[in-house]
Write the structure tokens for this entry.
Amino acid sequence: MLRKLSNKQVIIVAILVAIALNALSFCFAYPEISKPQSATSARDFSAYYTGAYRLIHNPTKIYFDGTQPGDYQILPQPQTFKYTPSFIVLFAPFLSMDYLTALNVFDFVQLALIPVLALFAYKLVKDKNYILGATAAFIILIQPLPTPSINVPRAPLINLGLFSVNSQSFAPSYYCGYLFVNAHILQTVLLVGALYLGFVKKPWLSALLFSFGLLDPRAAIVALPLLLWYNRQEIRKFIIAATAFILATNLPFFLYYGIGSTFLRTEMNSNIISQSYAYDWIPIYGVVALTMVEIITVVLKKRKSALVYPRAALIQTM
């Protein structure tokens, strides 16, 4: 079957299968999202909604735990906002909706972005080795690899007749991302999009997506080497643009009720970096997969050139 397909068609088939499995994971997770995440806390989205709400109504308490006076009521209580101040800007539009509506809309927005993520992935790997490209695309869209994670939920079993399958078996990290309504799916789109825009030599747009993709610095740091590589021909423009966008989207928060300073103190005094959830690995594994494909491609090209050019030189001397 694979021999009858072109290399690009093999990658496209892998991507379509991955999108279908991703959507299947969403279908199993979505019915649960309107319920509290636990007896003591709401879904992860509650942190983003509360952070945006406090930015307007109680800016000194954005990074405080639990319910604060004057908060929008979210039961049992909202999660703690622990991301960069600039990330709040992305969620300000959701305040035009009530919490449950915004929760549902955001989960559907992330699902709707999967074809966009697939397009970015395809553009980055379509001219690479088709096996490597298909594998990388599959990892980006499914993330089937094991994760050293905590707080992995129990998922219902799917009865397939002769046997049953855990509903998160298809895409466990994405299942958790949809179930908890967590923004690491969005971060994956932003970081892979930044890589693609660097690849097609659009350093300013690449820097813009990267600046908003900093919500979890761990994944952004992993993406940075490949991002610099793709932007190498316009590296000065990229660095200037990234610096400008990061300062423009974060510096004002240091001047507005000291939100930026509170964020830095919170990060320094917490154990957030040591925590690991299944959805955290969606952008990390995706970027690592693309990085490995690029490294192997470059190495193989250099080896091929080393074999071709000596022969050409030998022929000229004869």
